[in-house]
Amino acid sequence: VPALDEEAAIGGVVSGALAEARRLGLSCEALVMDGGSADGTVAAAVAAGARVVPAPGGFARALRLGIAEARGEYICVMDGDGSHPLERLPALWARRAEADVVIGSRLVHEGGMRLPLYRRLLSRALNVFFQIVLGVPVADSSSGYRLYRAAKVKGLEGRAEGFEFQQEILLQVLRAGGRAVEVPIRYTWREAGASKARVLPLALGYLRMTWLYWSAS
Question: What is the pLDDT of residue 208?
Answer without folding.
Answer: 75
